[in-house]
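Revision sheet: structure tokens.
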Amino acid sequence: MDFKILETIGLTKNETKVYITLSEKGSALAGQITEKTGIHRRNVYDALERLIEKGLVSYINIDNRRWFNPANPNRFLELIDEKKSELDKNKKIIKDILPYFLQLRKEMPKQDVRFFKGTQGLKSVFEDILRTNENYLGYGPGAVVEKILNFYFPYYIKKRIRSKIHYKLIYEESVRNKKYTENPLSEIKFLPDEYISHTAQRIYGDKVAILLISEEDPLAIIIKNMAITDSFRKHFEILWKSAKK
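Predicted:
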């Protein structure tokens, strides 16, 4: 039987072992509990003290020796009710102070930085673009992005087209005429391969996403800050003027 459930109501592993041992024996000395559980004697005493405080263990003195007894197991239900009562009380307190923190959040600068790792991290960027539902700009190594997200992009493209999201992208010259450079609602230009790094960027709404394109360890950073996004947008326009159709 799995007794880990007892840990969810506040018992430690040692307390759980001690209570189970007492339940099996009916009554025991601390030394007997140590022998049965393998827990150090000092830790057994600590566990017993805590169990006594929780009303799960009692003891009697016989010939100057302390015999420990397990309490009625219905005490566990009482502990759950006590925990629920405490949670309800804490919930009410949180509700009372919540408006204060919400107000502070409104007064904070509208900025945010989020990091994502792995293939799922890259997907998070494109899912965020769909949620934002705004046209976007960007550049970066198209071949590697397409390879890493090969199975995801058909799904993404369908949702993008359905949402009528347009984009302008700058790719490396070597991928010209590739199928993914001819998607609907898109405008593509090209720069010589030496000017394209291993990072890609997507600029949308008040966010800029920087994607480190690596098959081994992809990484994405989304920055939500209008001033930063505007500077990336201006930089993109300079590159766009230099790129070729």
